[in-house]
Amino acid sequence: MDAISQRKLVAAVAVGIVSKQLYDIYGYFFEHNSGYSSTTLIHWCIIYICFFLSLWFFQVERLQFRFLAIIVFSILSIFWNIGIFEVTKFLHGEPYSLTILKNDAPVVITQEKESIKIDHNENLGSHYIHFVPYARGVFNPNGDAFCISDYNTKVEVPLLIKGVPPYKIKYEFTNFNTNKTTINEHEFSVTNEKINIDDKPKVRRHVLPIKAPGKVHLISVSDEIYGEGKVDTKNSKDAYIINCPNASLTESFVEVCVEDSYDINFLASGFGPLNVYYTKKVNNEDAILNMFQSGTISKENDVQKQHEIRDSIHFDFPTPGSYLFKIATVMDNLNNTVWYTNNKLTLSKIPGYEVFSNNAKDISTLINVRPKPTAKLESKDTNLLLNQKAKVKVILEGTGPWTITYAFLEDKTEIVPELIEKNKIVIDNIQQNNYVINIDKPGIFKLLSVTDAYCKGEILLPSDSLVQLIYPPEVEITKEPIYESCPDPIGMRFNVTFVGEPPFKLKYSYTNENTGESKIENIISNQSRFIFNGTPKVPGKYAYSFLSLNDANYFNVPVNITETTFPVHPPSDAIFLKTDKIYSCVGETVTLPIRLSGTGPWSLTYDILYGRIRTSKTISNISSSNYDLITEKFDQSGSYSYELSSIIDANGCIKNIQHSSPIIIEVFGHTPKAYFAGETDESRRQYITLDDPNGVYLPVRLEGKPPFDLNYTLINEDKLIVDKSIWNQNALLKVYKPGVYELRGIHDKYCPGIVENPRQFEVRGILRPTIEIVENEVTKICKSEDSCILSRTTICENESDSLGIKMTGKPPFIVKYSITDEKGKESVFTETLSQYDSRLSLYSKAVKGNYTIKILSIADANYSKPSKVNEVVQQEVKSKPRASFITNKKLFQCVGEDTSDLEIVLQGETPFTVKFSYRYNGKHDTFEIKDINTQIFKFSINEYIKDVGIYSFYIRNVIDGSGCIYEEEETNDKAAFVEVSDVAKIWSTSAPEVCVGDMLYYTLSGIGPFKVYYSLNDGEEVPVTASDNQLKLRTGEPGIVTITRACNVMGCCSKPIGLSHVIHSWPTAKINDGKDIIEELREDEGDMGKIRVDFTGVPPFDFTYSHKILNVGIHKSSDINSISPQDIKSEKQVSIVGINDYKYVFESSEEGLYMVSSISDKYCGNRQSYSNQSEEKVEDSSNTKDKKTGESN
C-alpha cells in the first residue's frame, strides 16, 4: 500500500473513532442509553491510545512521530475524552463524575452541576404494573418419530413450554401393543435452575418419557403461577413411537474358493422399506460403506406393525483373502436409525431418532477366500539308474491334504493323448508339499490335475517329465614308469579312460611299503581321458590301488583294476626358506636357512656373485634336511647375490637346482653418525623454567638409514637415556631438567654408528619474576629496628589512587593484590601488566577509613604459577566535609514581615568555607561565608530578599580544615525555600438568592492554595481549601451563607464585607405516599393501572416521571430497590407541568415501573434534571379533573 493510501486509511480510522463517540452521545441523549457511564469513558480512552500507538508502530509517511510524542498525545487524549464526557453529562443534567463531600458541614465543596436529581435513598414510592401471561406448550415441534428396542427401553419426546415452572400437562396415549387409548398427566420441574416468582415467563425445553410403542397427543398445559395455558396446535405434532428396526446375518463364517460367487443371507424387521448399510473390508484395506434397500413400502396406518424381511446379497470373489462383511446401521421408513458401530458414518439419508446397539450379535460374516492350489514337476527330465527307481518330485502349493492325478506312458518318449485315460493314476491324502513318485521303468510322466483340502487347482509347467535309463560308468587305466637322470624311476605315469556321464571322480590310494605311510586322493575330470603322474617325494616302494568311481548319475561304483607296485627314487633338491632382500653392514655375517629334499647325505654347491665376480663353494656331508648357511664377514660394501647351483644325493645322482630363487644381501659400508645442531656454544643453549611441565626440545642431527636408536645422558645424573625409533634425521630431543646433555651412541636401521662433536648441549634454568614498590610511593615508619611499616600519603574520600611498582621477569606480568578495610573486609584484585614500571589501581572512588594494601603474588610469561610476595602498605582515607540546611522546609511570610534566618549543619574539620547560590523570579546569584568554626551555623538572608516571590537557596561547595572539598549540584530536595506572599482577596459571581443544591461561585486573588471560611445562619466558621483561584460551594440546606474571611497558604488573610447568599428549599413529589406498589393485570383484558402523586412545596408544580421496561419481573416491593442498570430494557420520561393541586393521578395500560425523576415548584427546580430523553410537557388545568400526559420515546 502506498503512502497516500495509508494516510487515507488513517483518516478513515480517525473518522470512525469520532463517529463512535458521537453515536454514544446520541444514544445517551435520545435513546435512553443507561450504559453511558465511566465504562464508556474508559472505552474512548483505550481506542484513542491504540490509535496513537498504531501510528507509531506502522510509521505512516508524514505521520511519523517519536514515541515520546505518542505518549504526550495519548495523555492529552485522556483529558480530551474526560472533558467531552463531563460536558455531555453537564448538558444532560447529571452531576459530574467527581464529587467531594464534607459530611460535618451543611454547605459542602463539590464539582457537581447546578441542579440535582431526585435522591431515591429517600423513599419517594413507585408503582409497578405487571401483565400476567398464559402458559403455552408446543409438543414434538420437529414432528420426529421414535423407536423402542432392547437397547433403549424408553424414549424422550421433546416439549417446549413457555411459563414459570413447575408445569403440568395432559396427553392422550394409544398403546400399539394393546391398542388401548388412555389419558395421562405428567409434571415438570426445574432442578438445575433457580426459579424466582418475579421471573418473566421464558421458553424451556422438557422431555416426556414414553416406555411403550404408541401414539402421543398433547391435550393441555398449565403452570403453577398462571394456571391453565394453551397448546400451540399449529406447531405441535403427534409423536409416533414404534419398534426399532434391526438386521442380522445368518452366517458368521464361510469359506469359498477364489473366482467363486456367494449369496450372503440376512434377516431384518421394521417399518419398511429398510435401508441397510454395511461395510466390506478386504484383508487390511480400508472398509467401504455400501447400502441396499429391502422390503416394500408400508402403508401409513401400518406404522404399528413390525414387518419381517428376508433377503440376500450376491458377491463375487476375484482375489483370495479375508472378506469381512459387517452391518453398520439400519434405517426404517420413518428414519429411525439403529447403529451397530461406535463410529458414525456418512449416510445417504439424514438419520432421525438414533439408537446405539454396541453389543449386537449376528451382524458380521467373515468369508475366507482360498487361493487355487497348483502343482508342477521339479524337472523336465528324470534319470532312471540301473536296478534303482527314478524319483519324480511334484511341487504342490495350497492347503493339504492334496489329491493329484497323473498318467505314466511306459517306454514312450512323447505324449500320446489316446493312452492318457487308460494309464491315469489318482493319489490322494498327500500331506507334504514336495511329493516324490517312484518310477522303475523308462517312459514319460504327465501331471493331469490337482485338488487341495478346499479348492480344485491348476497344473503349472513343467507338467511332464521324460524318464530315461542310465547305465553305470567304467574306467580303463594304462601305466608307464617315469625316468630322469638316474637309472631308477622317480614315479609312474597313469593314462585313464572314462565311460559314463561327466564329471568323473576316481578315488585311489598309495602306500609306502618301506615306511607304512598311506594316503587317499581323488582325481576329478570333466573329460573322458585324463593323465596323472604318481611321483612321491620320499623314496621307497609304493603300491597304488584304485578304489571307486563316480559320475553324474552313479556314486561309489567299484573299480576292477589290479594294484600297481613300483620303486620310487625322487631327485634331490634344495631351496632357500627366505627369499627377501637382506641388509647388512661391513664386518658382519648373515645366516641363510636352506631346506633339502631327496636321499641324504648331500653335497651342496652354491655361487656368490659380487659385481662381475662369481665364486663357487661346496658344502659336503649335509645330513639334515634343514641347514643354516653362515656367510663370511663382509669386507666391502655392495650387493651380494647367493644362488644354489647343484646337489648330489646319497645315490650319487646330481641335480642342477633351477627353481630356487637367489638371495640378495645389501651390505652398507657407511657409518651412522649423531651430533647436536649449532655451530656456537650459545646456539647450543636452551632456557627452561624451573617447574615447566612442557620441557624444551634439543636439535640433533642423525646420519644413516632411519629409524635410529639414540643413547644420551644428563651429565650430572650419569643416567643413560635410550630414545628408539627416530625417523627424522633432524630430530628434536625433549628434556625437562636444566643441565648439560651428552650424546653417547647411535644405531640406524642396519648398522651401529659413532657420536661426533658437538656432542653436548646446555639447558639453563630461568629465574622467577620479582616485584617491589617504587621508593617515593611510600614512607617507611619504624617504631624500632625490627618493627617497621610502609605508609602511603592520606587521600580524601571519592578520590582515585594507584601504587607504583617495578618488576623483573618476562612480560606480561600478572600481579595479585588485596585491599582490606578497617572492618576486616578484604577485596582481592588481579591485574595484567605489560611494562616493567607500572601502577596498581587502588580505588576509583575511595571510602573513608584505614586500609591495608597487600601485594600477594606475581607471575610472568615464563612462570604461569604465581610466586608469593609479602609487601604490606598502610593508607588512610579521610571523609569529605558535608553541609545541609536544618531549615530545609518552606518558610512563608507575608509582605512587610521580617525574614527568618537560615541555619546549616556542618561535618568535617574546622574551619569551614561554604559557598551558596540562590534563585528568585528567574534570577540567579551566589555568596560565600568563610572561617566558620562551629558545626551548626545560622546566618541572615535579609540582604538577599528583594520582592514578593519564592526564593530557593542552595549549598554549592564546602572546604574543611583538612583541605577536602565537597561539591553539590542545585537540587530542590536539598534546598531551602522562602516564599514571600501578599494577602488573599475574594468576591462572588453568583446571584444573591439560590436554591438548595445550586452552586455558589467565588473568585480569589493572590498565591494559592487558599483557605476560605464561611458560616451558615451566622453559626460556626467552616474552612474550605481551594487549590486555585476558583471556588465552588454547593448549597446543602435552606438559610443564609456568609463568607467571613479568605487566606492564602501562608496565613495572609482578608475579611470581605456583606458577601452573603439566601438559600431556598426544594419541593418534593411522592408516588403512593412513598410506598412501592405492585399491580398485576391479566393480558388481553384491557385493564389500566392508576398512579397517584403527592407534592410538597409552593404551587404550581412541574414534575417528570420515568417509565422503565424491565428484563426481570417484580413480585415483591423489596425487589424494586435492588434493580440494576442491566435489569432495565428501555426507559422513557414523561413531564407534567402547571399543576396547582398537591395531588395528581394518571392511568397507564403499559407494563413497567413508574417512578418520579424530577420536581420543581414556584421557586426552585425550574431546570430539569434529565437530558437523554425527549420530553413533551402537558399543562394541568385547575378547572377540570382530567389529567393530560405527554410521552416520547
TrEMBL record:
A Pfam family it matches: Ig-like_POM152
Region (Disordered), start-end ranges: 1165-1193
CC annotations in GO: nuclear pore transmembrane ring
Occurrences of domain Nucleoporin POM152 immunoglobulin-like (ranges): 472-566, 803-880
GO MF annotations in UniProt: structural constituent of nuclear pore
Xref: InterPro entries: Ig-like_POM152 (IPR056541), Ig-like_POM152_1st (IPR056542), Ig-like_POM152_9th (IPR056543), Ig_POM152 (IPR056544), Pom152 (IPR037701), TMD_POM152 (IPR056540)
This protein's UniProt keywords: Membrane, Transmembrane, Transmembrane helix
Stretches assigned to the Nucleoporin POM152 Ig-like domain: 373-463, 672-759
Domain Nucleoporin POM152 first Ig-like: 138-224
Protein name per UniProt: Nucleoporin Pom152
Source organism: Piromyces finnis
